[in-house]
């Protein structure tokens, strides 16, 4: 089964070459790599044009920064593989784990797979306490509405059968994508699995972008896409 790897990026000049190299060297080789640059202004676009474009399937450019959700909307629409995986450009998630993530779909046991940072058994960088608390609260609230028992709704590693994710209209343009897509996937009644993954989180000094405002938006999105739609 062909794997479409969608990489949204914004001002990731320090890591974009590293993540593309890591994806290309992943054990799952039947792949197409789609990079969506979301209006970068730090030299990322120049790297994409000169070094990345020749070695990936597609590079798509947004003229203005719109947000992670907008970049994913563009990249998912361009995917042609049987399976679509979201890969952040910041090296927090390890492409060596692709076989683990896609296995439930390849075995025809799942339609969607969430990679959980909190299921245990794999390395996870120790970082911000309040981020962990916030993640747990958002996951709990989302689960209460969807009746799923996820451990990590906000995970950056989400994997889908292409026909499922392309059938969903993505409305959120920033980090609200995570609770939105979880609510809409739950509504399809498809088969959802979780697998434990490693996590090499970065600090704000190292370029982390999500902040408390995105947490507030996530709360709103949980209510919006579960109760108001």
Summarize the structure in words.
The structure is a single chain. With 229 residues, this protein is α/β, with parallel strands linked by helices. The chain has eight helices and seven strands. It has helices at 16-24, 44-52, 68-78, 98-106, 129-146, 162-165, 177-188, 212-227, and strands spanning 3-9, 31-38, 58-62, 83-86, 112-116, 158-161, 192-196. It is globular, with a radius of gyration of 16 Å. The termini are far apart.
Note the beta-strand portion. Answer: 15-25%
Q: Helix amount, in percent?
A: 25-40%
Helix/strand/pairing category: alpha/beta
Biggest beta sheet summary: 7 strands, mixed
The best one-word shape is globular
Radius of gyration: 16 Å
Give the rounded overall mean pLDDT.
Answer: 93
Strand order of the main beta sheet, please? 3-2-1-4-6-5-7
pLDDT < 50 runs, ≥5 residues? none
Number of strands: 7
What is the terminal-to-terminal distance?
33 Å
Give me the strand/helix succession: EHEHEHEHEHEHHEH
Number of helices: 8
> What oligomeric state do the depicted chains represent?
single chain
């Amino acid at each position: 089964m062909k794997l479409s790897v969608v990489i949204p990026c914004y001002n990731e000049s320090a890591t974009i070459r590293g993540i593309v190299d890591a994806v290309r060297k992943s054990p799952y080789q039947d792949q197409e790599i789609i990079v969506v640059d979301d209006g970068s202004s730090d030299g990322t676009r120049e790297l994409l044009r000169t070094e990345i474009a020749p070695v990936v399937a597609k590079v798509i450019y947004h003229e203005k920064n719109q947000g992670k959700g907008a970049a994913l909307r563009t990249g998912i629409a361009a995917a042609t593989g049987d399976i679509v995986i979201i890969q952040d450009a910041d090296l927090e998630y390890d492409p060596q784990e692709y076989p683990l993530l896609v296995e439930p779909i390849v075995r025809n046991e799942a339609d969607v797979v969430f990679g959980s940072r909190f299921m245990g058994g794999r390395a996870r960088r120790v970082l911000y306490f309040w981020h962990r608390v916030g993640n747990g609260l958002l996951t709990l609230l989302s689960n209460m509405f969807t009746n799923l028992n996820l451990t990590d709704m906000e995970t950056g590693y989400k994997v889908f059968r292409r026909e499922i994710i392309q059938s969903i209209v993505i409305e959120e343009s920033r980090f609200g994508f995570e609770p939105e897509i979880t609510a809409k996937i739950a509504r399809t009644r498809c088969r959802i699995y979780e697998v434990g993954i490693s996590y090499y989180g970065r600090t704000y000094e190292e370029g982390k972008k999500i902040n408390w405002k995105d947490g507030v938006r996530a709360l709103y999105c949980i209510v919006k896409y579960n109760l108001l739609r």
